[in-house]
Amino acid sequence: MTVVDSRPSSVQPNPAPAAEPEGQTLPQFVLTITCQDQVGIVHAVTEFLLAHGANIKQHQQFDDPVHDVVHLRTAFTGPHELRLETLETNFVATADRFGMRYRIHDQTPPRLLVMVSKGGHCLNDLIFRWRAGGLGGEIALVVSNHEDLRPMAEAAGLPYLHIPVSPATKREAEQRLLDLVEEHEIDLVVLARYMQILSDELCTALKGRAINIHHSFLPGFKGARPYHQAYARGVKLVGATAHYVTADLDEGPIIEQEVIRVDHTHDPRALSTVGQDAEALALSRAVRWHCEHRVLLEGSSTVVFR
Asked: 244: which strand partners?
């Protein structure tokens, strides 16, 4: 969608949106906004983009009538000389006028740190999508409290760091993780079946920057052997939930859920296989949507623009 200037000719027009030269790619940006619903928001945004020679490629909007809040995601291209710093500086006045919470992102792929334990199905799926160019981010390294998945990571050319965790070393291990996040300029930590509970302090430090996956039997089937418990109860649906990490265990804002129907023919092993499929799907979607700046946090919930 191209924004057109329809003002009278006596008014000096803003720069026309840049045309994309053949064989060249124009810089791409995504603007996300959350603010109280009020008159003039969309007009102000489009006017701002037009003034910077931007061409809107996608605009999505959700007006929340319960909380009287509007959420926007606008993807656009700009002329080659347009820089992220310029947009961020110049948008402050518009944001202040409407009381907006906003972010502007350029096309730099977010950098990911993936944490694993012994189960490799989610890591394997993330690596496949990353190498195929469909994950939306760049996996920078893999961290684990076990050595089991080192061959999988290193076969993909990824650094693999083993950080053992015990009650005595938990604080030290978590500090090492935070050091790695800073050292490698990590934008998102992905818990791909990492079987350790993070401390409240670490959850707070990674707020909005860490995604976890768990099977949706919780909290009905806690503890060990959840699929055996599910089989004993004759479950008919197997699912998984991807959510942001918070200090409330497995209760963070939900990004995506996947559900697969099963029946009495599924024994515990078959249920586990189906559950792994659901986990991999839900996690990869959540990671991609986060990397594409499609997820807006709103309290204990999320708005996800597909």
From this structure: 211
Instruction: Please give the CATH number for the structural domain made up of 111-304.
Output: 3.40.50.170
250 noted as active-site residue: yes
Return the amino acid letter for 229. Q
Domains of the chain, by residue range, sit at 28-105, 111-304
Quick check: bond before 159 cis, omega within 30? no
CB neighbour list of residue 66: distance below 8 Å, 6 or more residues apart:
none
Question: Could you tell me the CATH superfamily of domain 28-105?
Answer: ACT domain (3.30.70.260)
pTM score of the predicted model = 0.90
| Residue range 221-249, pLDDT digits in tens | 877 788 999 999 999 999 999 999 999 88
27 vs 83: CA distance, rounded Å: 8
> DSSP letters along 200-213, please?
HHHHHHTTTSEEEE
pLDDT tens sequence across 50-76: 999 999 999 999 999 999 999 999 999
Active-site residue, selected from the candidate residues 37, 64, 250, 277: 250
